[in-house]
Amino acid sequence: MSDKELTPVEKVQRLERAALNSSPEEIARIYAELGKVELSARALAFAFRFRDVECVKALVESGASLDVPFTNYMINTYGTYGDDFCVTLLEKFPKHGIMLFTVVPTILNYPFKLENGTEPKPQPFEKRAETVRYLIKHGEKAGFSAGELLFYAIVFEDEKMTVELKRLGVTLTEKRRRMLTEKSGQNDILIWTSFLERSKTERFVPALSRLQRELGAKFHNTKGIYEAIFDKLYIPENLRFYLKNFDKPTPNQTNILKLMIVKNSIAGLAFAESVGWLKHPKKRDELIEYASERNSTECTAWLLDFKNRTADLAAECAKAEKKQERELNASPDSVSVLKTLWNYKKREDGTIIINGYKGDRTEIEVPAKIGKSPVTAIKSEAFCPYQGGVIKKTNGRFLKTITEITLPASVVEIGEKAFAYIDNLTVKAPRGSFAEKYCKEHNINYIPKGD
Predict the structure, then answer these.
(1) Model confidence over 389-426: pLDDT tens digits?
(2) Going by DSSP bridges, is the β-strand pair 386-387/390-391 parallel, antiparallel, or unpaired?
(3) Considering only CA atoms, which of 326, 375, 310, 318 is closest in space to residue 349?
(4) Rounded Cα gap, residues 156 and 309, in angstroms
(5) Which residue in 136, 253, 344, 434 is a FRET match for 247, CA 20 to 30 A apart?
(6) How does DSSP assign 10-43, residue by residue?
(7) What is the helix (H) or strand (E) element at residue 74, kind and residue range?
(8) pTM reported for the whole predicted model
(9) What residues contact residue 357 under an 8 Å CB cut-off, 6+ apart?
Protein backbone atom coordinates (compact mmCIF):
# COMPACT_ATOMS: atom_id res chain seq x y z
CA MET A 1 0.00 0.00 0.00
CA SER A 2 1.43 3.42 -0.95
CA ASP A 3 1.53 6.29 1.54
CA LYS A 4 -1.31 8.06 -0.27
CA GLU A 5 -3.56 5.00 0.15
CA LEU A 6 -3.19 4.97 3.92
CA THR A 7 -6.11 5.90 6.16
CA PRO A 8 -5.90 9.23 8.05
CA VAL A 9 -4.91 7.38 11.26
CA GLU A 10 -2.30 5.31 9.43
CA LYS A 11 -0.83 8.52 7.98
CA VAL A 12 -0.48 9.95 11.47
CA GLN A 13 1.24 6.74 12.61
CA ARG A 14 3.56 6.81 9.60
CA LEU A 15 4.61 10.41 10.23
CA GLU A 16 5.22 9.72 13.93
CA ARG A 17 7.44 6.74 13.12
CA ALA A 18 9.35 8.90 10.66
CA ALA A 19 9.78 11.66 13.23
CA LEU A 20 11.32 9.13 15.62
CA ASN A 21 13.46 7.11 13.24
CA SER A 22 14.20 8.88 9.95
CA SER A 23 16.69 11.50 8.81
CA PRO A 24 15.48 15.06 8.18
CA GLU A 25 15.57 14.43 4.42
CA GLU A 26 13.53 11.24 4.77
CA ILE A 27 11.04 12.98 7.04
CA ALA A 28 10.47 15.70 4.42
CA ARG A 29 10.10 13.09 1.65
CA ILE A 30 7.66 10.96 3.66
CA TYR A 31 5.58 14.01 4.61
CA ALA A 32 5.33 15.02 0.95
CA GLU A 33 4.23 11.51 -0.03
CA LEU A 34 1.63 11.36 2.74
CA GLY A 35 -0.06 14.56 1.62
CA LYS A 36 -2.45 15.98 4.22
CA VAL A 37 -1.83 14.71 7.79
CA GLU A 38 -4.68 15.67 10.11
CA LEU A 39 -2.63 15.37 13.32
CA SER A 40 1.05 16.31 13.03
CA ALA A 41 1.47 17.80 16.51
CA ARG A 42 2.55 14.54 18.16
CA ALA A 43 5.18 13.93 15.47
CA LEU A 44 6.53 17.39 16.28
CA ALA A 45 6.42 16.57 19.99
CA PHE A 46 8.52 13.45 19.40
CA ALA A 47 11.05 15.48 17.39
CA PHE A 48 11.15 18.13 20.14
CA ARG A 49 11.99 15.60 22.80
CA PHE A 50 13.99 12.87 21.09
CA ARG A 51 15.46 14.37 17.88
CA ASP A 52 17.40 17.49 16.95
CA VAL A 53 16.42 20.84 15.50
CA GLU A 54 17.01 19.63 11.93
CA CYS A 55 14.23 17.03 12.27
CA VAL A 56 11.98 19.74 13.74
CA LYS A 57 12.78 22.00 10.78
CA ALA A 58 11.97 19.21 8.32
CA LEU A 59 8.54 18.75 9.90
CA VAL A 60 7.69 22.45 10.23
CA GLU A 61 8.81 23.32 6.71
CA SER A 62 6.75 20.39 5.41
CA GLY A 63 3.62 21.75 7.09
CA ALA A 64 3.56 20.17 10.57
CA SER A 65 1.94 22.29 13.26
CA LEU A 66 1.20 22.16 16.97
CA ASP A 67 -2.29 23.49 16.31
CA VAL A 68 -4.85 20.80 17.14
CA PRO A 69 -8.58 21.49 16.75
CA PHE A 70 -10.56 20.76 19.90
CA THR A 71 -13.28 18.57 18.34
CA ASN A 72 -15.08 15.35 19.18
CA TYR A 73 -13.51 13.77 16.12
CA MET A 74 -9.96 14.48 17.34
CA ILE A 75 -10.86 13.30 20.84
CA ASN A 76 -12.47 10.05 19.68
CA THR A 77 -9.90 9.28 16.97
CA TYR A 78 -6.63 10.32 18.58
CA GLY A 79 -7.43 10.82 22.25
CA THR A 80 -6.23 14.42 22.10
CA TYR A 81 -8.01 17.45 23.52
CA GLY A 82 -5.86 20.02 21.73
CA ASP A 83 -3.09 19.69 24.29
CA ASP A 84 -0.06 21.93 24.06
CA PHE A 85 2.56 19.45 22.93
CA CYS A 86 5.30 22.02 23.51
CA VAL A 87 5.69 20.52 27.01
CA THR A 88 7.83 17.77 25.52
CA LEU A 89 10.57 20.44 25.37
CA LEU A 90 10.69 20.47 29.18
CA GLU A 91 12.91 18.39 31.42
CA LYS A 92 9.89 16.75 33.06
CA PHE A 93 6.19 16.82 32.37
CA PRO A 94 3.19 14.65 33.35
CA LYS A 95 3.30 11.43 31.34
CA HIS A 96 -0.44 11.03 31.76
CA GLY A 97 -1.76 14.47 31.13
CA ILE A 98 -1.15 18.17 31.07
CA MET A 99 -3.72 19.43 33.53
CA LEU A 100 -6.86 17.50 32.53
CA PHE A 101 -5.84 16.16 29.22
CA THR A 102 -3.56 13.58 27.61
CA VAL A 103 -0.28 14.34 25.90
CA VAL A 104 0.88 10.73 25.86
CA PRO A 105 0.35 9.15 22.45
CA THR A 106 -2.54 6.75 22.28
CA ILE A 107 -1.31 5.11 19.08
CA LEU A 108 2.34 4.65 20.08
CA ASN A 109 2.26 3.77 23.77
CA TYR A 110 4.74 5.58 25.96
CA PRO A 111 7.39 4.45 26.76
CA PHE A 112 7.94 2.88 23.34
CA LYS A 113 10.87 1.52 21.31
CA LEU A 114 12.49 2.76 18.14
CA GLU A 115 12.74 0.62 15.02
CA ASN A 116 16.21 -0.52 16.12
CA GLY A 117 14.72 -1.92 19.33
CA THR A 118 16.10 0.74 21.69
CA GLU A 119 14.15 3.24 23.77
CA PRO A 120 14.43 6.87 22.66
CA LYS A 121 16.36 9.15 24.99
CA PRO A 122 15.39 12.78 25.57
CA GLN A 123 17.73 15.35 24.07
CA PRO A 124 19.92 17.29 26.53
CA PHE A 125 18.83 20.77 27.48
CA GLU A 126 21.19 22.49 25.04
CA LYS A 127 19.59 20.67 22.10
CA ARG A 128 16.08 21.45 23.29
CA ALA A 129 17.05 25.10 23.83
CA GLU A 130 18.29 25.22 20.21
CA THR A 131 14.91 23.91 19.08
CA VAL A 132 13.16 26.58 21.16
CA ARG A 133 15.20 29.34 19.53
CA TYR A 134 14.21 28.01 16.10
CA LEU A 135 10.55 27.77 17.10
CA ILE A 136 10.49 31.33 18.40
CA LYS A 137 11.59 32.53 14.94
CA HIS A 138 9.04 30.32 13.17
CA GLY A 139 6.33 30.25 15.82
CA GLU A 140 3.41 31.25 13.63
CA LYS A 141 4.18 28.62 11.01
CA ALA A 142 4.72 25.92 13.67
CA GLY A 143 1.70 26.88 15.78
CA PHE A 144 4.13 27.44 18.65
CA SER A 145 3.71 29.93 21.49
CA ALA A 146 6.82 30.66 23.57
CA GLY A 147 4.59 32.30 26.18
CA GLU A 148 2.68 29.04 26.63
CA LEU A 149 5.94 27.12 27.00
CA LEU A 150 7.02 29.63 29.66
CA PHE A 151 3.79 28.98 31.57
CA TYR A 152 4.39 25.23 31.58
CA ALA A 153 8.09 25.65 32.37
CA ILE A 154 7.16 27.64 35.46
CA VAL A 155 4.37 25.40 36.76
CA PHE A 156 6.40 22.22 36.15
CA GLU A 157 9.43 23.90 37.75
CA ASP A 158 11.83 23.56 34.83
CA GLU A 159 14.28 26.19 36.04
CA LYS A 160 16.69 25.91 33.09
CA MET A 161 13.97 26.38 30.47
CA THR A 162 12.39 29.21 32.45
CA VAL A 163 15.70 31.08 32.64
CA GLU A 164 16.39 30.50 28.92
CA LEU A 165 12.96 31.76 27.89
CA LYS A 166 13.28 34.84 30.09
CA ARG A 167 16.72 35.48 28.59
CA LEU A 168 15.08 35.42 25.18
CA GLY A 169 12.54 38.02 26.31
CA VAL A 170 9.56 35.66 26.48
CA THR A 171 6.58 36.63 28.65
CA LEU A 172 3.32 34.90 29.52
CA THR A 173 0.58 35.14 26.92
CA GLU A 174 -2.37 37.43 27.55
CA LYS A 175 -4.61 34.36 27.49
CA ARG A 176 -2.71 32.83 30.42
CA ARG A 177 -2.65 36.12 32.31
CA ARG A 178 -6.41 36.41 31.99
CA MET A 179 -6.87 32.76 32.95
CA LEU A 180 -4.87 33.26 36.14
CA THR A 181 -6.03 36.72 37.20
CA GLU A 182 -9.53 37.20 35.80
CA LYS A 183 -12.77 35.35 35.29
CA SER A 184 -12.07 32.95 32.40
CA GLY A 185 -13.93 30.55 30.15
CA GLN A 186 -15.01 27.17 31.48
CA ASN A 187 -12.26 25.16 29.75
CA ASP A 188 -9.50 27.44 31.06
CA ILE A 189 -10.89 27.25 34.58
CA LEU A 190 -11.12 23.44 34.39
CA ILE A 191 -7.49 23.22 33.24
CA TRP A 192 -6.28 25.56 35.99
CA THR A 193 -8.29 23.96 38.81
CA SER A 194 -7.19 20.51 37.67
CA PHE A 195 -3.55 21.57 37.87
CA LEU A 196 -4.06 23.03 41.34
CA GLU A 197 -5.83 19.88 42.53
CA ARG A 198 -3.15 17.56 41.17
CA SER A 199 -0.16 19.59 42.30
CA LYS A 200 1.74 18.06 45.20
CA THR A 201 0.99 19.59 48.59
CA GLU A 202 4.66 20.21 49.35
CA ARG A 203 5.22 21.85 45.93
CA PHE A 204 2.17 24.13 46.11
CA VAL A 205 4.04 27.29 47.14
CA PRO A 206 7.24 26.73 45.08
CA ALA A 207 5.22 26.04 41.92
CA LEU A 208 2.96 29.07 42.33
CA SER A 209 5.42 31.62 43.76
CA ARG A 210 7.41 31.97 40.54
CA LEU A 211 4.20 32.15 38.53
CA GLN A 212 2.80 34.83 40.80
CA ARG A 213 5.98 36.89 40.52
CA GLU A 214 5.77 36.59 36.74
CA LEU A 215 2.17 37.82 36.81
CA GLY A 216 2.75 40.68 39.21
CA ALA A 217 -0.86 40.29 40.33
CA LYS A 218 -2.99 38.08 42.52
CA PHE A 219 -4.51 34.83 41.29
CA HIS A 220 -8.22 34.88 40.57
CA ASN A 221 -10.23 32.94 43.13
CA THR A 222 -13.43 30.91 42.65
CA LYS A 223 -15.32 28.28 44.63
CA GLY A 224 -13.89 25.61 42.36
CA ILE A 225 -10.32 26.86 42.84
CA TYR A 226 -10.76 26.92 46.61
CA GLU A 227 -12.12 23.38 46.61
CA ALA A 228 -9.20 22.26 44.41
CA ILE A 229 -6.60 23.47 46.88
CA PHE A 230 -8.53 22.91 50.13
CA ASP A 231 -6.70 19.68 51.03
CA LYS A 232 -3.37 21.53 50.91
CA LEU A 233 -4.32 24.32 53.31
CA TYR A 234 -3.49 22.52 56.57
CA ILE A 235 0.16 23.45 55.96
CA PRO A 236 0.83 27.01 57.25
CA GLU A 237 2.96 28.05 54.26
CA ASN A 238 0.24 26.99 51.83
CA LEU A 239 -2.54 28.69 53.78
CA ARG A 240 -0.49 31.87 54.16
CA PHE A 241 0.20 31.90 50.41
CA TYR A 242 -3.49 31.40 49.60
CA LEU A 243 -4.62 34.19 51.92
CA LYS A 244 -2.02 36.61 50.55
CA ASN A 245 -1.86 35.80 46.84
CA PHE A 246 -5.44 34.88 45.80
CA ASP A 247 -7.96 37.67 45.37
CA LYS A 248 -10.88 37.61 47.79
CA PRO A 249 -9.85 34.38 49.57
CA THR A 250 -12.83 32.42 50.92
CA PRO A 251 -11.45 30.01 53.53
CA ASN A 252 -13.95 28.06 55.61
CA GLN A 253 -12.09 28.43 58.88
CA THR A 254 -13.85 25.58 60.68
CA ASN A 255 -13.30 23.10 57.87
CA ILE A 256 -9.63 24.02 57.53
CA LEU A 257 -9.13 23.76 61.31
CA LYS A 258 -10.73 20.31 61.26
CA LEU A 259 -8.45 19.34 58.37
CA MET A 260 -5.47 20.44 60.48
CA ILE A 261 -6.66 18.11 63.22
CA VAL A 262 -7.13 15.24 60.78
CA LYS A 263 -3.60 15.84 59.46
CA ASN A 264 -2.28 16.29 63.01
CA SER A 265 -0.84 19.67 62.06
CA ILE A 266 0.17 21.44 65.26
CA ALA A 267 1.99 24.01 63.12
CA GLY A 268 -1.29 24.68 61.32
CA LEU A 269 -3.16 25.25 64.58
CA ALA A 270 -0.41 27.62 65.76
CA PHE A 271 -0.76 29.61 62.52
CA ALA A 272 -4.55 29.67 62.95
CA GLU A 273 -4.03 31.14 66.43
CA SER A 274 -1.72 33.83 65.01
CA VAL A 275 -4.36 35.02 62.51
CA GLY A 276 -7.20 35.01 65.06
CA TRP A 277 -9.09 31.92 63.93
CA LEU A 278 -9.36 30.51 67.45
CA LYS A 279 -10.56 33.55 69.33
CA HIS A 280 -14.19 32.42 69.59
CA PRO A 281 -14.73 30.12 72.59
CA LYS A 282 -17.51 28.12 70.92
CA LYS A 283 -15.36 27.27 67.92
CA ARG A 284 -12.41 26.44 70.16
CA ASP A 285 -14.46 24.07 72.34
CA GLU A 286 -16.03 22.41 69.29
CA LEU A 287 -12.53 21.76 67.95
CA ILE A 288 -11.42 20.29 71.26
CA GLU A 289 -14.38 17.92 71.12
CA TYR A 290 -13.68 17.08 67.47
CA ALA A 291 -10.01 16.35 68.17
CA SER A 292 -10.93 14.21 71.18
CA GLU A 293 -13.49 12.20 69.19
CA ARG A 294 -10.84 11.48 66.56
CA ASN A 295 -8.32 10.42 69.23
CA SER A 296 -5.98 13.13 68.00
CA THR A 297 -4.02 13.29 71.25
CA GLU A 298 -1.46 15.92 70.22
CA CYS A 299 -4.05 18.32 68.77
CA THR A 300 -6.35 17.86 71.76
CA ALA A 301 -3.48 18.63 74.13
CA TRP A 302 -2.47 21.70 72.10
CA LEU A 303 -6.03 23.06 72.01
CA LEU A 304 -6.51 22.49 75.75
CA ASP A 305 -3.24 24.28 76.43
CA PHE A 306 -4.39 27.13 74.16
CA LYS A 307 -7.63 27.34 76.14
CA ASN A 308 -5.75 27.44 79.45
CA ARG A 309 -3.43 30.16 78.14
CA THR A 310 -6.04 32.46 76.65
CA ALA A 311 -9.51 31.85 78.07
CA ASP A 312 -11.33 34.05 80.58
CA LEU A 313 -13.33 31.14 81.92
CA ALA A 314 -15.48 33.18 84.28
CA ALA A 315 -16.54 35.59 81.52
CA GLU A 316 -17.18 32.72 79.11
CA CYS A 317 -19.34 30.93 81.68
CA ALA A 318 -21.43 34.04 82.33
CA LYS A 319 -21.89 34.64 78.60
CA ALA A 320 -22.90 31.03 78.03
CA GLU A 321 -25.48 31.20 80.83
CA LYS A 322 -27.06 34.32 79.32
CA LYS A 323 -27.23 32.69 75.91
CA GLN A 324 -28.78 29.55 77.37
CA GLU A 325 -31.40 31.66 79.15
CA ARG A 326 -32.31 33.45 75.90
CA GLU A 327 -32.62 30.14 74.06
CA LEU A 328 -34.82 28.65 76.79
CA ASN A 329 -37.12 31.67 76.65
CA ALA A 330 -37.38 31.57 72.86
CA SER A 331 -40.09 29.47 71.23
CA PRO A 332 -38.62 26.73 68.99
CA ASP A 333 -40.75 27.98 66.10
CA SER A 334 -40.00 31.68 66.61
CA VAL A 335 -38.61 33.64 63.71
CA SER A 336 -35.37 34.34 65.60
CA VAL A 337 -34.75 30.61 66.12
CA LEU A 338 -35.76 29.62 62.58
CA LYS A 339 -33.40 32.22 61.11
CA THR A 340 -30.50 30.37 62.69
CA LEU A 341 -31.59 27.12 61.00
CA TRP A 342 -32.91 28.14 57.60
CA ASN A 343 -31.81 30.21 54.65
CA TYR A 344 -35.12 31.39 53.19
CA LYS A 345 -36.77 34.18 51.23
CA LYS A 346 -40.20 35.74 51.36
CA ARG A 347 -41.74 35.89 47.89
CA GLU A 348 -44.02 38.53 46.39
CA ASP A 349 -47.13 36.47 47.14
CA GLY A 350 -46.20 36.40 50.84
CA THR A 351 -45.11 32.74 50.91
CA ILE A 352 -41.70 31.42 51.91
CA ILE A 353 -39.20 29.49 49.77
CA ILE A 354 -36.51 27.49 51.57
CA ASN A 355 -33.09 28.14 50.00
CA GLY A 356 -30.95 26.01 52.31
CA TYR A 357 -30.36 24.51 55.74
CA LYS A 358 -27.84 26.00 58.21
CA GLY A 359 -28.30 23.68 61.17
CA ASP A 360 -26.37 20.61 62.29
CA ARG A 361 -29.04 17.92 62.64
CA THR A 362 -29.19 14.92 60.31
CA GLU A 363 -32.96 14.54 60.90
CA ILE A 364 -34.68 17.76 59.82
CA GLU A 365 -38.25 19.04 59.87
CA VAL A 366 -39.09 21.89 57.51
CA PRO A 367 -41.49 24.29 59.26
CA ALA A 368 -44.99 24.80 57.86
CA LYS A 369 -44.72 28.53 58.63
CA ILE A 370 -42.03 31.07 59.39
CA GLY A 371 -43.74 33.80 61.32
CA LYS A 372 -47.15 34.16 59.71
CA SER A 373 -45.96 33.19 56.23
CA PRO A 374 -46.53 29.64 54.95
CA VAL A 375 -43.60 27.65 53.59
CA THR A 376 -44.66 26.56 50.09
CA ALA A 377 -41.47 25.88 48.13
CA ILE A 378 -38.04 24.25 48.29
CA LYS A 379 -35.44 25.87 46.02
CA SER A 380 -33.37 23.91 43.47
CA GLU A 381 -30.32 22.28 45.14
CA ALA A 382 -31.52 23.53 48.55
CA PHE A 383 -30.28 20.41 50.35
CA CYS A 384 -27.90 19.20 47.62
CA PRO A 385 -24.27 19.04 48.84
CA TYR A 386 -23.05 20.24 45.43
CA GLN A 387 -23.55 23.52 43.67
CA GLY A 388 -22.51 23.88 40.06
CA GLY A 389 -20.65 20.57 40.23
CA VAL A 390 -18.54 21.40 43.31
CA ILE A 391 -19.06 20.98 47.04
CA LYS A 392 -21.01 23.94 48.45
CA LYS A 393 -18.83 26.56 50.07
CA THR A 394 -20.52 26.42 53.46
CA ASN A 395 -22.00 23.13 54.68
CA GLY A 396 -21.81 20.95 51.57
CA ARG A 397 -19.97 18.08 53.21
CA PHE A 398 -22.44 18.03 56.13
CA LEU A 399 -25.49 17.93 53.84
CA LYS A 400 -24.31 14.56 52.48
CA THR A 401 -24.88 13.10 55.98
CA ILE A 402 -28.58 14.03 56.27
CA THR A 403 -30.76 10.95 56.73
CA GLU A 404 -34.30 12.35 57.08
CA ILE A 405 -36.22 15.43 55.95
CA THR A 406 -39.85 15.96 56.96
CA LEU A 407 -41.92 18.25 54.72
CA PRO A 408 -45.25 19.92 55.55
CA ALA A 409 -48.34 19.64 53.36
CA SER A 410 -47.97 23.34 52.55
CA VAL A 411 -45.00 22.62 50.24
CA VAL A 412 -46.33 22.59 46.67
CA GLU A 413 -43.10 23.31 44.77
CA ILE A 414 -39.73 21.52 44.88
CA GLY A 415 -36.91 22.64 42.60
CA GLU A 416 -34.55 20.52 40.52
CA LYS A 417 -31.95 18.49 42.46
CA ALA A 418 -33.32 19.76 45.78
CA PHE A 419 -32.30 16.47 47.47
CA ALA A 420 -29.70 15.20 44.97
CA TYR A 421 -26.55 13.35 46.07
CA ILE A 422 -27.74 12.62 49.63
CA ASP A 423 -27.04 8.91 49.69
CA ASN A 424 -29.17 7.70 52.61
CA LEU A 425 -32.09 10.13 52.56
CA THR A 426 -35.69 9.41 53.56
CA VAL A 427 -38.38 12.06 53.05
CA LYS A 428 -41.43 12.14 55.29
CA ALA A 429 -44.55 13.99 54.20
CA PRO A 430 -48.36 13.64 54.51
CA ARG A 431 -50.09 11.15 52.24
CA GLY A 432 -51.40 12.74 49.05
CA SER A 433 -49.09 15.72 49.38
CA PHE A 434 -47.04 17.23 46.59
CA ALA A 435 -43.91 15.96 48.35
CA GLU A 436 -45.12 12.35 48.14
CA LYS A 437 -45.65 12.68 44.40
CA TYR A 438 -42.25 14.35 43.97
CA CYS A 439 -40.45 11.56 45.85
CA LYS A 440 -42.06 8.83 43.76
CA GLU A 441 -41.24 10.63 40.50
CA HIS A 442 -37.60 11.10 41.53
CA ASN A 443 -37.04 7.70 43.19
CA ILE A 444 -36.52 9.19 46.65
CA ASN A 445 -37.27 6.97 49.63
CA TYR A 446 -40.63 8.16 51.01
CA ILE A 447 -42.42 7.44 54.30
CA PRO A 448 -45.89 8.86 55.08
CA LYS A 449 -45.70 11.39 57.89
CA GLY A 450 -47.12 9.96 61.11
CA ASP A 451 -46.90 6.28 60.02
Answers:
(1) 677 777 878 888 999 999 999 999 999 999 999 989 99
(2) antiparallel
(3) 375
(4) 44
(5) 344
(6) HHHHHHHHHHHHS-HHHHHHHHHHH---S--HHH
(7) helix 72-78
(8) 0.63
(9) 341, 342, 343, 364, 382, 383, 395, 399, 402
